[in-house]
Amino acid sequence: MVSWIISRLVVLVFGTLYPAYSSYKAVKSKDVKEYVKWMMYWIIFALFMTVEAFTDMFLCWLPFYYELKIAFLVWLLSPYTKGSSVLYRKFVHPTLSSKEKDIDDYICQAKDKSYDTLLHFGRKGLNVAATAAVMAASKGQGVLSDRLRSFSMQDLSSYQSDPVTSSPGSAQSGAAQHRTRPIMRSKSESYKGNPG
Protein backbone atom coordinates (compact mmCIF):
# COMPACT_ATOMS: atom_id res chain seq x y z
CA MET A 1 0.00 0.00 0.00
CA VAL A 2 2.82 2.41 0.84
CA SER A 3 4.54 1.61 -2.47
CA TRP A 4 1.31 2.35 -4.32
CA ILE A 5 0.95 5.76 -2.63
CA ILE A 6 4.57 6.68 -3.33
CA SER A 7 4.18 5.53 -6.93
CA ARG A 8 1.07 7.70 -7.35
CA LEU A 9 2.83 10.76 -5.90
CA VAL A 10 5.90 10.28 -8.10
CA VAL A 11 3.73 9.89 -11.23
CA LEU A 12 1.75 12.98 -10.26
CA VAL A 13 4.69 15.22 -9.42
CA PHE A 14 7.45 14.01 -11.72
CA GLY A 15 5.37 12.44 -14.45
CA THR A 16 2.75 15.15 -14.81
CA LEU A 17 3.41 18.43 -12.98
CA TYR A 18 7.13 18.80 -13.72
CA PRO A 19 6.73 18.00 -17.44
CA ALA A 20 3.71 20.32 -17.63
CA TYR A 21 5.75 23.18 -16.20
CA SER A 22 8.66 22.36 -18.51
CA SER A 23 6.24 22.34 -21.45
CA TYR A 24 5.00 25.75 -20.38
CA LYS A 25 8.59 27.01 -20.34
CA ALA A 26 9.17 25.57 -23.83
CA VAL A 27 6.07 27.32 -25.16
CA LYS A 28 7.09 30.56 -23.48
CA SER A 29 10.63 30.46 -24.87
CA LYS A 30 9.41 29.34 -28.32
CA ASP A 31 12.31 26.89 -28.55
CA VAL A 32 11.42 24.31 -31.23
CA LYS A 33 13.85 21.73 -29.83
CA GLU A 34 12.11 21.89 -26.47
CA TYR A 35 8.69 21.68 -28.14
CA VAL A 36 9.68 18.49 -29.90
CA LYS A 37 11.27 17.01 -26.77
CA TRP A 38 8.20 17.60 -24.61
CA MET A 39 5.75 16.53 -27.30
CA MET A 40 7.59 13.21 -27.57
CA TYR A 41 7.46 12.90 -23.78
CA TRP A 42 3.70 13.54 -23.65
CA ILE A 43 3.01 10.96 -26.36
CA ILE A 44 5.06 8.34 -24.49
CA PHE A 45 3.51 9.35 -21.16
CA ALA A 46 -0.02 8.96 -22.59
CA LEU A 47 0.89 5.45 -23.75
CA PHE A 48 2.48 4.75 -20.36
CA MET A 49 -0.69 5.82 -18.53
CA THR A 50 -2.83 3.67 -20.83
CA VAL A 51 -0.68 0.60 -20.26
CA GLU A 52 -0.46 1.37 -16.53
CA ALA A 53 -4.24 1.26 -16.20
CA PHE A 54 -4.18 -2.42 -17.18
CA THR A 55 -0.88 -3.47 -15.60
CA ASP A 56 -1.87 -2.08 -12.21
CA MET A 57 -4.81 -4.48 -12.15
CA PHE A 58 -2.82 -7.57 -13.06
CA LEU A 59 0.84 -7.03 -12.15
CA CYS A 60 0.65 -5.14 -8.86
CA TRP A 61 1.43 -8.36 -6.96
CA LEU A 62 4.90 -8.56 -8.56
CA PRO A 63 7.74 -7.67 -6.18
CA PHE A 64 9.17 -4.21 -6.84
CA TYR A 65 6.46 -3.46 -9.40
CA TYR A 66 5.91 0.11 -8.18
CA GLU A 67 9.63 0.72 -7.83
CA LEU A 68 10.11 -0.41 -11.44
CA LYS A 69 7.41 2.03 -12.56
CA ILE A 70 9.18 4.87 -10.76
CA ALA A 71 12.53 3.86 -12.33
CA PHE A 72 10.87 3.76 -15.78
CA LEU A 73 9.44 7.25 -15.26
CA VAL A 74 12.83 8.60 -14.20
CA TRP A 75 14.36 6.98 -17.30
CA LEU A 76 11.73 8.68 -19.48
CA LEU A 77 12.45 12.11 -17.98
CA SER A 78 16.22 11.97 -17.63
CA PRO A 79 18.12 14.31 -19.95
CA TYR A 80 20.99 11.79 -19.95
CA THR A 81 19.02 8.73 -21.04
CA LYS A 82 16.44 10.62 -23.13
CA GLY A 83 14.11 7.66 -22.64
CA SER A 84 11.01 9.25 -24.11
CA SER A 85 12.93 10.32 -27.20
CA VAL A 86 14.41 6.83 -27.65
CA LEU A 87 11.03 5.10 -27.32
CA TYR A 88 9.35 7.60 -29.59
CA ARG A 89 11.96 7.40 -32.36
CA LYS A 90 12.45 3.63 -32.28
CA PHE A 91 8.92 2.36 -31.70
CA VAL A 92 6.11 4.89 -31.61
CA HIS A 93 6.94 7.03 -34.67
CA PRO A 94 7.53 4.10 -37.06
CA THR A 95 4.39 2.31 -35.85
CA LEU A 96 2.18 5.38 -36.08
CA SER A 97 3.62 6.35 -39.47
CA SER A 98 2.80 2.95 -40.95
CA LYS A 99 -0.72 2.87 -39.46
CA GLU A 100 -1.56 6.58 -39.70
CA LYS A 101 -4.03 6.30 -42.60
CA ASP A 102 -5.88 3.41 -40.94
CA ILE A 103 -6.04 5.27 -37.63
CA ASP A 104 -7.32 8.45 -39.33
CA ASP A 105 -9.99 6.47 -41.18
CA TYR A 106 -11.06 4.76 -37.97
CA ILE A 107 -11.27 8.10 -36.15
CA CYS A 108 -13.40 9.59 -38.98
CA GLN A 109 -15.72 6.58 -38.91
CA ALA A 110 -16.00 6.79 -35.13
CA LYS A 111 -16.84 10.50 -35.34
CA ASP A 112 -19.50 9.87 -37.99
CA LYS A 113 -21.02 6.97 -36.09
CA SER A 114 -21.02 8.86 -32.82
CA TYR A 115 -22.69 11.85 -34.49
CA ASP A 116 -25.34 9.61 -36.08
CA THR A 117 -25.87 7.79 -32.78
CA LEU A 118 -26.19 11.08 -30.94
CA LEU A 119 -28.80 12.32 -33.42
CA HIS A 120 -30.69 9.03 -33.26
CA PHE A 121 -30.87 8.96 -29.47
CA GLY A 122 -31.54 12.70 -29.33
CA ARG A 123 -34.58 12.28 -31.57
CA LYS A 124 -35.78 9.32 -29.54
CA GLY A 125 -35.34 11.28 -26.34
CA LEU A 126 -37.30 14.22 -27.70
CA ASN A 127 -40.09 11.91 -28.87
CA VAL A 128 -40.29 10.24 -25.48
CA ALA A 129 -40.34 13.63 -23.72
CA ALA A 130 -43.03 14.99 -26.04
CA THR A 131 -45.16 11.87 -25.59
CA ALA A 132 -44.78 12.06 -21.82
CA ALA A 133 -45.74 15.75 -21.83
CA VAL A 134 -48.84 15.09 -23.96
CA MET A 135 -49.88 12.16 -21.76
CA ALA A 136 -49.40 14.18 -18.60
CA ALA A 137 -51.35 17.10 -20.04
CA SER A 138 -54.23 14.93 -21.19
CA LYS A 139 -54.45 13.03 -17.89
CA GLY A 140 -54.04 16.13 -15.78
CA GLN A 141 -56.28 18.40 -17.83
CA GLY A 142 -59.33 17.81 -15.64
CA VAL A 143 -57.38 18.35 -12.44
CA LEU A 144 -55.71 21.44 -13.84
CA SER A 145 -58.98 23.01 -15.01
CA ASP A 146 -60.60 22.29 -11.63
CA ARG A 147 -57.71 24.00 -9.88
CA LEU A 148 -57.83 27.00 -12.18
CA ARG A 149 -61.61 27.25 -11.82
CA SER A 150 -61.35 27.24 -8.03
CA PHE A 151 -59.09 30.29 -8.18
CA SER A 152 -61.23 32.32 -10.57
CA MET A 153 -62.54 35.70 -9.43
CA GLN A 154 -66.11 34.73 -10.20
CA ASP A 155 -65.95 31.80 -7.79
CA LEU A 156 -64.42 33.95 -5.06
CA SER A 157 -66.93 36.78 -5.49
CA SER A 158 -69.91 34.42 -5.50
CA TYR A 159 -68.49 32.64 -2.45
CA GLN A 160 -68.24 35.87 -0.45
CA SER A 161 -71.56 37.33 -1.66
CA ASP A 162 -73.67 34.28 -0.76
CA PRO A 163 -74.51 35.35 2.82
CA VAL A 164 -75.20 38.96 1.83
CA THR A 165 -77.67 38.14 -0.96
CA SER A 166 -79.56 35.58 1.03
CA SER A 167 -82.20 36.63 3.53
CA PRO A 168 -81.93 35.64 7.18
CA GLY A 169 -85.03 33.49 6.88
CA SER A 170 -83.79 31.55 3.84
CA ALA A 171 -82.85 27.91 3.96
CA GLN A 172 -79.10 28.57 3.88
CA SER A 173 -77.18 26.11 5.98
CA GLY A 174 -75.33 27.16 9.08
CA ALA A 175 -72.13 25.75 7.62
CA ALA A 176 -72.17 28.24 4.73
CA GLN A 177 -72.68 31.13 7.13
CA HIS A 178 -69.93 29.81 9.32
CA ARG A 179 -67.56 29.66 6.30
CA THR A 180 -67.99 33.33 5.45
CA ARG A 181 -67.42 34.67 8.94
CA PRO A 182 -63.76 33.62 9.23
CA ILE A 183 -63.02 35.30 5.90
CA MET A 184 -64.60 38.56 7.03
CA ARG A 185 -63.04 38.26 10.45
CA SER A 186 -59.62 37.69 8.98
CA LYS A 187 -59.99 40.77 6.77
CA SER A 188 -60.96 42.99 9.68
CA GLU A 189 -58.23 41.51 11.84
CA SER A 190 -55.68 42.19 9.14
CA TYR A 191 -56.78 45.82 8.96
CA LYS A 192 -56.61 46.21 12.73
CA GLY A 193 -53.23 44.56 12.95
CA ASN A 194 -51.73 46.59 10.12
CA PRO A 195 -51.36 50.27 11.19
CA GLY A 196 -50.26 51.54 7.76
Automatic annotation (TrEMBL):
Q: Which GO terms describe its biological process?
A: cellular respiration; cellular response to oxidative stress; endoplasmic reticulum tubular network organization; musculoskeletal movement; regulation of motor neuron axon guidance; swimming behavior; thigmotaxis
Q: Where are the transmembrane segments?
A: 38-62
**Which UniProt key words apply to this protein?**
Membrane, Transmembrane, Transmembrane helix
Transmembrane: present as a keyword of the record? yes
Compartments where located: Membrane
MF (Gene Ontology): microtubule binding
Q: Which intervals of the chain are annotated as region Disordered?
A: 158-196
InterPro entries reported for this sequence:
TB2_DP1_HVA22 (IPR004345)
Organism superkingdom: Eukaryota
Q: Where is the composition biased (Low complexity)?
A: 166-177
* GO cellular component terms given for this protein: cytoplasmic microtubule; endoplasmic reticulum membrane; endoplasmic reticulum tubular network
What family does this chain come from, according to its entry? Belongs to the DP1 family.
Q: Entry's PANTHER family?
A: HVA22-LIKE PROTEINS, RECEPTOR EXPRESSION-ENHANCING PROTEIN 1
What is the recorded name of this protein? Receptor expression-enhancing protein
Query: What species is this protein from?
Result: Oryzias melastigma (Marine medaka)
